[in-house]
Amino acid sequence: MPDRIRLDGRVAVVTGAAGVIGTATLHLLAERGARIVAVDRQGADLAAAVKDLPASAEALTITADVTQEDEVKDYVRAAVDRFGSIDAFYNNAGIEGDIKPIPDYPLESSRRVLDVNVVGVFLGMKYVLPVMLKQNKGSIINTASIAGLMGSPLIAVYSASKHAVIGLTKSAAWECSGTGVRVNCVCPGMIDSRMLSTILQGRSGGNAPPPVEKIVDRIPARRLGLATEVASIVAFLASDEASYVSGSAYTVDGGRTAA
Length: 259
What we know:
single chain, 259 residues, Rossmann fold, 7-stranded parallel β-sheet, 8 helices, globular
């Protein structure tokens, strides 16, 4: 009986690949046999992210801005030209934006957050979905957040953008009804990362953020999450083990949203 968690020979495209979650995910996907297309704006960081991938990953790196339609078209075309298909798409690129109350939030900054986190996700699906629908198979996994499930002080625009990602995910899943294409999203909670550090620093008014012990007090698991734990859910959703899963928002938050 085949191992349904394996991704041998499948083509996985990962955006935001140079970030901590993107990098952890592309490494796990490669470990499970996938061929990798890594996309990020930061060329040097992207090279470092794929440096230790196995040769079997046949890693293709593409420097692209997910908010630019032509660049999204290009990374999708490059993936298909190189490998002939896209079997899994981790639509992961995102930014936290400013850490400010709504009255102080600059309009330009809010537009940038929505552009990356919502328009970038939309454009990725706009150009990957036709590839998957044509082959009648594929899995799209968008990165949302527990901030897309609840209110979050001082990151209202980020929270709004992640609510939008969940809405896009559920709507796309319905549009793919009756096909072999599935669309889901992951909602990370407090993951040990540069983004979390930036948010905590901003909420502390530029002072030292509260000690980890105080932060994790609100998390039933009593610790921060790891990027590898998010990657595990993405890899599951990309695999045949999740063949009956679509339109779902998977929390990876140590129970933070259970209350």
